[in-house]
Design brief:
Oligomer: single chain
Strand content: under 5%
Number of helices: 12
Radius of gyration: 24 Å
Helix content: over 70%
Number of strands: 0
């Protein structure tokens, strides 16, 4: 058996290998760019609406960014400290339940570490001992990283079709048309999915908080936040949030645990029968398996940043694959 490899094929392999190696070396820069593209894509529709209302684009961009940062700062300095306090109490309750029913004891050093860390973080936030930029930097890896993401996303948003102009600037002339078309499809799909998912998370989180508060469950805020966040994880997320809520309530009393079980089942039925058909109707096209796998892979590769850019990256790759299949099928018919 004879294997013939042409110089052109070898050259292509070397180019692809070199590109992959270069991407690995520039992984932090690429992650900054991807995150800035995600933020710019999310903010662009709002800026466009303000521009249609005769508000200058630069002023509209500043307004959108200030509103977003104000909401985020409010969450960091008000809701987050309370959630961390409840999270600390939740950890102690779960440790007690595990010890009582399963005979499993959390290591004393681990319990002390979690208690100390959560308490110190909460005190810092409540006292204003840490700046908002430092909090962002801690989440994203460093203050410089956070500043780079904010500045780049601001400049991409401030320019009309800033992302498309950026793609035109970095891509060869023959490929820019298809790349922009793929970007528009991806942006539309991600935008619809994100808006629908945000509505679902807010509705579910609020419903869980009010329900647990009425029933009289402690740690109702942290359980509501967990339910809202895990709503982003298809299928598995709501089940985990519900199971955690039932476990915490059952630790107080079995009757309370049953009430919480019925509450989560009722919320889940309302979501499946009413909210999902109503809200997610326009957000079709993103496979739940792709969302789940991309979130897990992104978290494993790059933590919080990886999770933030995982879904847009996965959707873009899905659109590239769909486009390639479409082109291939068109050529085969000719």
């Amino acid at each position: 058996m004879r294997l013939d490899i042409s110089w052109s094929s070898l050259f292509r392999v070397l180019i692809v290998g070199g590109a992959v190696f270069a991407a690995y070396l520039m992984r932090e820069t690429i992650s900054i760019l991807l995150l800035a593209l995600v933020i710019s894509t999310a903010f662009e529709p709002g800026v466009d609406r303000l521009e249609k209302m005769k508000i200058p684009r630069i002023l509209g961009t500043i307004i959108i960014f200030l509103v977003a940062l104000t909401i985020l700062a409010f969450i960091v300095y008000t809701i987050l400290p309370i959630t961390l306090l409840e999270l600390n109490s939740l950890f102690k309750n779960l440790s007690g339940l595990a010890s009582q029913f399963l005979g499993i004891r959390a290591p004393i050093a681990l319990s002390h570490l979690i208690d100390t860390d959560l308490s110190s973080i909460t005190n810092l936030l409540l006292s204003g001992g840490v700046s908002f930029l430092q909090v962002l930097g801690r989440l994203l890896g460093s203050v410089a990283y956070a500043i780079a993401v904010l500045v780049l996303s601001f400049y991409l948003t401030i320019s009309r079709d800033g992302v498309e102009k950026f793609l035109k600037a970095i891509l060869p002339e023959g490929a820019e048309g298809r790349a922009i078309q793929l970007y528009r499809k991806t942006r539309k799909k991600i935008g619809r999915w994100f808006q629908a998912q945000l509505v679902l998370s807010l509705v579910i989180g609020t419903s869980v908080f009010l329900g647990l508060w009425i029933i009289g469950v402690d740690q109702n805020l942290v359980l509501a936040v967990i339910a809202a966040v895990f709503e982003l994880v298809p299928v598995v997320g709501p089940i985990f949030a519900g199971a955690l809520g039932v476990a915490v309530a059952a630790g107080e009393s079995l009757r309370l645990g049953m009430y919480v079980l019925f509450l989560f089942l009722a919320i889940q039925q309302i979501e499946n029968q009413l909210l999902v058909p109503l809200v997610m109707r326009k957000a079709v096209g993103i496979n739940p398996v792709i969302i789940l796998v991309s979130l897990l892979g992104g978290a494993q590769i790059a933590g919080v940043i990886g999770m933030l850019v995982a879904i847009p990256t996965a959707v873009f790759l899905q659109e590239i694959l769909n486009d390639w299949v479409e082109v291939k099928s068109t050529r085969s018919k000719k």
